[in-house]
Amino acid sequence: MRAKRVYNTSHRSPVTRHALAAAACATMLAASSCAVLAAQQAVFPDKPIRLIIGSAPGSGPDIISRVMAERLYKTWGQRIVVDSRPGAAGVISAELALRANPDGYTWMMLTSQLLVATSVFPDVKFNLGRDFASVSLIGTVPFVLMVNPEAVPAKSVSELIEFAKKQPGKLRYGSAGTGASEHLCGVMFTKLTGTSMLHVPYKGIPQAIADTLAKEVQLTYAVMPAALPMITAGRLRALGVTSPQRSPSLPDVPAIGETVRGYDMFGWYSIVAPTGTPGAILDKVSAEVVKAVKEPEFAKQLRSLGTDSVGSTRAELDAFRRSQTTKITELVKTSGVDFK
């Protein structure tokens, strides 16, 4: 009968001891890293924050960013430096933000204009949904359909449709450029109304407005802050706002959707950060931005810019961005317009 072998289970090979030691070190390092990260998040922010915007100084996004920066400075005692990088409909600002360390100290203002640009020009080197994490939707702003009253007799959207159908392809409308939000406002209008108008792109909405006044084009779409001075002065006639509801800034001007079923196009401003930014920091920033946006004084400042305050949660902004991306992508795809 064979004797049973007895193994000494208390003895471990050098390889096993080294593996256990390495695992222990890895565990300690992970715990240490977590502790450091938790400590960083607890004191956030402990240095200035950079907010990159894709618009020029003095623009709506720039003004809103600076108001927000001042409000958060009062809370945190740290400066939010607004870094204006206009050009390419915000693409330049996005590329710059993505080169930053995702540590919570670089934010970007994501606007409807940048989302439209990535839908119209899909060869950009980033994906907004994948590469940027949501913080909060600050507010929405409608565009205004304005006509030169000396060139277009219409006093309502229905009269404009009738007028345009009598002379297909002869009415010209201006925008801030090919593929700009204002351009898509016109694309959606002609698509849903069965009218035909000639699009005239400019290098900015001020030029489009100037040529509407000069009757080089008969109508234009302009974001609310740019439109209000022309309307209140009586130089251009507002026929409708592009948002689903009437705007508090122009309560007597109907929404285009009241006449044209399904018409819904508006601008918006939001705060995002590069993907990889710690979730706890995103939550902290989001909570403070929401608190600021919902303050009466901040909301009043937004209204002065023709903007309706929102102040969404991160999840709400995620859902909003998905719905807007779907809408704009579908419009671009089915419009039959060559945006190149």
How are the SSEs ordered, and which strands pair?
Elements lengths: L13 H30 L5 E5 L6 H17 L3 E5 L6 H8 L7 E6 H9 L7 H4 E16 L9 H10 L5 E4 L5 H13 L4 E4 L3 H9 L5 E5 H9 L4 E5 L24 E9 L4 H15 L2 H9 L3 E2 L4 H22 L5
Parallel strand pairs: 1-2, 1-3, 5-6, 5-7
Antiparallel strand pairs: 3-9, 4-7, 4-8, 4-9, 4-10
Helix pairs in contact: 4-12
Strand content: 15-25%
Give the C-alpha Rg: 26 Å
Q: Using DSSP, what is the number of strands?
A: 10
What is the H-and-E element order? HEHEHEHHEHEHEHEHEEHHEH
Assembly status: single chain
CATH class of the largest domain: Alpha Beta
Q: Low-confidence spans: pLDDT under 50, at least 5 residues? A: 31-37
CATH level-two architecture of the largest domain: 3-Layer(aba) Sandwich
| Main sheet overview | 10 strands, mixed
Write the CATH fold name of the largest domain: D-Maltodextrin-Binding Protein, domain 2
CATH superfamily of the largest domain: Bordetella uptake gene, domain 1
Q: Treating each run of at least 4 consecutive H or I residues as one helix, how many helices?
A: 12
The structural domain count equals 2
Helical amount among residues, as a percent range? Answer: 40-55%
Look at the helices and sheets and give the structural class: alpha/beta
The shape is globular
Average of per-residue pLDDT values = 88
C-alpha termini separation: 90 Å
